[in-house]
Amino acid sequence: MYDKLAYVGEQFRLPGKFYAYETVKNGNINSTYKVTYRGDDGKLKSYIVQKINTNVFKNPENIMENIDRVTSHIRERNPDGVSLHFHHTADGKNYLYDEDHAFWRVMNYVDSITFDVCDDPAVISATGEAFGRFQNQLSDFDGSVLHETIPDFHNTHKRLDKLFDDVAADRLGRNDEAAAEIETISAYRFQAGRLSERYANGEFPVRVTHNDTKSNNVLFDRFTKRPLVVIDLDTVMPGMAMYDFGDAVRFICNTAAEDEPDLRRVYFDTSKFRAFCHGYLSEVKDSLTKDEIDSLVLAAFSITVELASRFLDDYLTGDTYFKVNYPGHNLVRTRCQLQLAKDILRKKDELEWIVSESIEG
After folding, report:
1. How many angstroms separate the Cα of 251 from the Cα of each of 132, 262, 298?
2. How many CB atoms lie within 10 A of CB 196?
3. Are the beta carbons of 316 and 174 closer than 8 angstroms?
4. pLDDT (tens digit per residue) in 139-148
5. Is residue 51 within 8 Å of residue 31, measured between CB atoms?
6. Strand partners, 50
7. Nearest CA to 105 among 50, 41, 175, 176?
8. Are the C-beta atoms of residues 249 and 352 closer than 8 Å to each other?
9. Distance between CA atoms of residues 31 and 18, nearest Å
């Protein structure tokens, strides 16, 4: 691997002499390495080198074109801040195919920490601030020029249509085991799909969306715990800003794991929602439309139902998409997300009041 990484660094024209590398174990899709070079002045400088999993990302060149456009725009808007920078080869590309047709990229290394799970309100608020700043820095960017690298990724209406097509087929005879979950999603179907229908009708702006707004996709300063930069831009594409917000709070405010079998442990934590909401809206309240802000809570509900429908659809069709650890794992995941969606609905008025409070504050 030393020779391969040295070759990749040479193609990306990294200055100095290749000094060392280590494997970065965060993430389950791409192969990631921290490589270090010694400059002519003796100082060490590190970079992140990644080999992209092209079995997952079928159109990596489109992904890198999206990333190049977005990161360039952010650097223009915020030239003195911390930002991601992807290096280019001599022919001006921010990616490389090696002799084995493996796909590589190189970006700047940011000394930082991340949080997979966090209960600290200050860090949760800072996470909201980071994703709000990301959205705000791209508020004047035309999201429609980006490639839709995963078509209909968050088209809840179409996701639900597919689920009920598979329910009607019942090819594996699993409907009876999931009868209660099918009934619940059917009851939620219109309400959960409404935002994606309105987006398709042009009622919301086409925004740049991150589509994986988990807390561990924000780099924080080691000492101050202030947010530095949003990372993992592989799923950046056009979409609704509210769904980035909704997916973030769906993940952060769940009091249990996504596959918690004991539903008594699953509820939506309003104190975490308040912390994230305050941070997010402090950055983005002036660049979102009133309709977008008014739809934030519904987006959290909708995307939670959408994920439940994806888990259930995978269960009904043979568990071929999500990795499962035991029979019925996807059904357990479905139940957990539906319990969370139910609690969001129950607390809807309180959550909308928190949104209003955050706007005013």
Report:
1. 16, 17, 15
2. 25
3. yes
4. 999 999 999 9
5. yes
6. 32, 105
7. 50
8. no
9. 19
140 burial (CB, 10 Å; 0-12 / 13-18 / 19+) is exposed
Q: What is the DSSP string of 221-274?
A: -TTT--EEEE---TT-EEE-HHHHHHHHHHHHSBSS-TT-S-GGG--B-HHHHH
State pLDDT tens for residues 17-61. 999 999 998 776 899 999 999 999 999 999 999 999 998 888 999
Q: How far apart are CA 78 and CA 212, in angstroms?
A: 22
Cα angle 331, 116, 129; round to 5: 110
Phi and psi at 44, nearest 5°, equal: -95, 140
Please choose, from the candidates 162, 116, 175, the residue with its C-alpha nearest in 3D space to the C-alpha of residue 306. Answer: 162
d(CA 114, CA 220): 6
Kindly list the structural domains of the chain, giving each domain's residue range(s) and its CATH number in brackets, ordered by start. 2-108 (3.30.200.20), 121-360 (3.90.1200)
Name the residue among 115, 113, 106 with its Cα closest to residue 46: 106
Q: Are 67 and 233 in contact (CB under 8 A)?
A: yes
Q: What share of the chain is helix, strand, coil (3-state, %, to 5)?
A: 50, 15, 35
Torsion region of 240: left, alpha or beta (phi above 0 gives left; psi -120 to 50 gives alpha): beta
Q: 3-state class of 19 per DSSP?
A: strand
pTM given for the model: 0.93
CA atoms 47, 146, 242, 156: torsion sign: negative
What pLDDT digit, counting tens, does each position of 299-346 carry?
A: 999 999 999 999 999 999 999 999 999 999 999 999 999 999 999 999
